[in-house]
Write a structure and sequence with these properties.
- The chain is α/β, with parallel strands linked by helices.
- Helix content is 41%, strand content 14%.
- The protein has helices at 17-25, 46-53, 66-80, 100-108, 124-127, 132-149, 165-170, 182-192, 215-236, and strands spanning 7-13, 34-39, 57-60, 85-88, 114-118, 161-164, 197-201.
- Helix 6 (132-149) packs parallel to helix 9 (215-236) and helix 8 runs parallel beside helix 9.
Length: 246
């Protein structure tokens, strides 16, 4: 705990057997109270590895629910267990657990209710091996989103993020997509509800066992992000209504 606030790390897992142990071993258990791993019907031994590591909270999907669906299970369970701060950490070791202290203190001290670990602040993205085409797409989408959402985030596409329980209770993330665009729908909901988002610089690693989506899925994701941003602005202008913001 920090300042009496319970911290739960959630790990949405899919075929994370090879990287789970390294990720788990760097989690700072001096402040983290519990870890939840949600396995989205992995084809490898992710569940066995999680049990070997002693992870007690393992949620298992009988059918693959997708990246967004996996997160829903994570957050719902964390709230059930009484989390005050929920940190999503990918178990593929692309993001370092060593930032959990910094992220947690920002929320625990009521500086920001949501924190994103940004690969773009500094030179972490390209230095860590992010493909240039993904970097360029990231910068274009982020510019487009900042204009339509009237914000100034360095990036919207980091998978390393933390939330106060209040935010999770007050946005209807369960109605969001089960696919990758879930992340951006959630950020739009957060801003629509007038919460602020802080950022910290985060190094990242791209390697063979780190998860990554292919070009087709990336294109679908990109168009989804554009749609979310346009609908957000139309809703803000009162020209349409969306179930995301009810």
């Amino acid at each position: 705990m920090i300042l009496g606030k319970k911290i739960i790390v959630v790990m949405p897992a899919y075929n994370a057997e090879k990287t789970l142990e390294q990720t788990y071993n760097e989690i700072p258990f001096d402040i983290v109270d519990e870890v939840i791993l949600t396995d989205d019907c992995s084809k490898d031994l992710t569940i066995a590895k999680a049990m070997e590591l002693g992870i007690k909270e393992i949620q298992i999907h009988e059918k693959n629910k997708g990246y967004g669906g996996n997160q829903k299970t994570c957050y719902n369970r964390a709230l059930e267990l009484g989390a005050d701060i929920v940190i999503m950490l990918h178990p593929d070791y692309q993001y370092t657990p060593k930032l959990i202290h910094s992220i947690s203190y920002i929320i625990a001290n009521d500086l920001y209710p949501v924190v994103l670990a940004s690969r773009i602040l500094g030179n972490g993205a390209l230095k860590g091996g992010m493909p240039k085409i993904k970097y360029i797409a990231n910068r274009f989408l982020t510019l487009f989103q900042n204009i339509l959402l009237k914000q100034k985030l360095s990036e919207y596409h980091s998978g390393y993020r933390a939330f106060s329980a209040e935010v999770l209770r007050n946005i209807n993330y369960n109605i969001n997509s089960d696919d990758f665009v879930f992340d951006n729908e959630m950020i739009a909901q957060i801003f629509y509800s007038d919460y602020e988002i802080g950022e910290v610089t985060c190094p990242t690693k791209y390697f063979d066992n780190a998860s990554s989506i292919n070009l087709i899925r990336s294109s679908i994701y990109g168009f989804g992000v554009l749609k979310v941003s346009i609908f957000y602005r139309l809703c803000k202008w009162g020209l349409m209504k969306s179930k995301l913001y009810k």
